[in-house]
Write a structure and sequence with these properties.
With 414 residues, the protein is mostly helical. The chain has a single domain, classed as MFS general substrate transporter like domains (Growth Hormone, Chain: A, Up-down Bundle). It is built from 15 helices and no strands. Helix 2 runs parallel beside helix 4 and helix 2 packs antiparallel against helix 7. The longest helix has 38 residues.
Length: 414
């Protein structure tokens, strides 16, 4: 009986796991870039500031993509189609990174990767939110689990491969993962979409802008987006400067770098489903506060650690706390917004996140060039302190009891 229930649960959540795999593929693309950044920088002969600028270009493209991604998803209602298109664009751009011989060519490829990354989120998060309204935290934690898998597995698998075929070969061959996942999404979710919500009624232009206006008047939504943006600023900085620190300051080989980065990202594999399930039961706010506070304390503490073993252990704890927050914040946002505006709400949050994330690589790179790489981590600590300050000011969500009532959460405000 237990086995039958387990199989039934897996079947019901099948679309969530497939979309989670797609999310993992988008993060696989980004993780491959970040992992290859030290090798690309050395090959092209660029500075830390220029390497940080590449990451800023990624975030800028993500920000600009929000102008159209949310509206396109909500107005057309084609949530699965846009997920597939996102993966195909990202895979093609990553291949171009592998064949680029000039800095400007890498910049253009990063623009496409950043845009495709933020085309994914409004489509996928709104799809899952509407498909699993009573298990939203769990469904979006599976989505986040895919991201952590992509982020963690990419450097672990490709670390040794770099030694065999070089960084360019890794960039070119790794596109097989997102292409295969895109094919799976197209073949499976396209058939089940009508039952799940892929074919929900498109919005008129007037109804869409009316919904946007109402969302922008919700101060709780805006505060939640601001808090998430500070958190994402720290995450974006870590993705850039942690590989550089491991390669240049600690002198680790590509294979060992892959293991350390797996420890950082792999902790989120465990954290995401635990945090998502907990938030469905206990409410979003206590989970977010616990994760933000832990992340802040560990990140500050790591700036005083010199022992490599302790540093790696601290990085694992940091990854656990940092990535546990992500699906809960997304679930909280969906609780506060109407179902047919899920794509635009996601675009609002990810647009602000991308805007803040542009600051960390550029300013952190400038600090690293002048004062050494550790100075970049002090900047990230400040970002987390600000995130912690904002989350304290957030109101208690009306859905704190975990009773599954979605109707009352849409109007929560400060």
């Amino acid at each position: 009986m237990g086995m039958a229930q387990m199989k039934s649960g897996l079947s019901v959540l099948g679309p969530a796991y497939l979309v989670g795999a797609g999310h993992g593929a988008t993060h696989w693309i980004a993780a491959i870039f970040y992992f290859l950044l030290p090798f690309l920088a050395k090959d092209l002969g660029i500075s830390y500031a220029q390497a940080g600028a590449l990451a800023a270009v990624f975030q800028m493209a993500s920000f600009c993509a929000n102008v159209v991604s949310g509206p396109v998803v909500d107005i057309t209602g084609r949530r699965v189609l846009w997920q597939v298109i996102s993966l195909v664009i990202g895979a093609a751009a990553l291949f171009c990174v592998g064949i680029s011989q000039y800095y400007w060519a890498a910049v253009l490829a990063l623009i496409a990767i950043g845009a495709s990354n933020n085309l994914w989120h409004p489509a996928a998060i709104s799809y899952l939110s509407a498909r699993f309204p009573e298990r939203r935290g769990l469904a979006l934690s599976i989505h986040a689990l895919g991201a952590n898998m992509g982020d963690a597995v990419a450097p672990l698998v490709m670390g040794p491969v770099v030694l065999l075929i070089g960084w360019r070969g890794v960039a070119q061959t790794s596109v097989l993962v997102p292409i295969l996942v895109a094919l799976g999404l197209f073949l499976f979710l396209r058939r089940t979409g009508r039952a799940s919500n892929e074919a929900h009624q498109p919005l008129s232009i007037g109804a869409y802008f009316g919904g946007v206006a109402g969302m922008l008047r919700n101060r709780a939504v805006l505060a939640l987006c601001l808090m998430s943006s500070f958190r994402n600023m720290a995450q974006a900085g870590l993705l850039v400067f942690l590989p550089l620190y491991l390669a240049d300051e600690m002198g680790l080989s590509p294979a060992v770098m892959g293991v350390v980065l797996f420890a950082f990202q792999g902790a989120g594999i465990l954290a995401a489903p635990l945090a998502g399930h907990w938030s469905d039961k206990a409410g979003r706010r206590p989970v977010v506060m616990a994760g933000i506070t832990t992340t802040t304390l560990v990140l500050i503490g790591l700036t005083f650690v010199s022992n490599s073993v302790v540093y790696v252990a601290g990085v694992s704890v940091l990854g656990f706390a940092l990535f546990a927050i992500r699906p809960v914040v997304h679930s909280w946002l969906m609780d506060l917004t109407p179902e047919n505006m899920g794509g635009s709400a996601t675009s609002l949050m990810f647009g602000l996140q991308a805007l803040f994330a542009m600051i960390a690589p550029v300013l952190g790179g400038w600090l690293a060039d002048r004062y050494g790489l550790p100075s970049a981590f002090y900047l990230l600590s400040v970002a987390m302190i600000l995130a912690n300050a904002v989350v304290i000011l957030l109101p208690k969500a009306q859905r704190e009891a975990g009773d599954g009532d979605q109707s009352s959460t849409k109007s929560a405000s400060l």
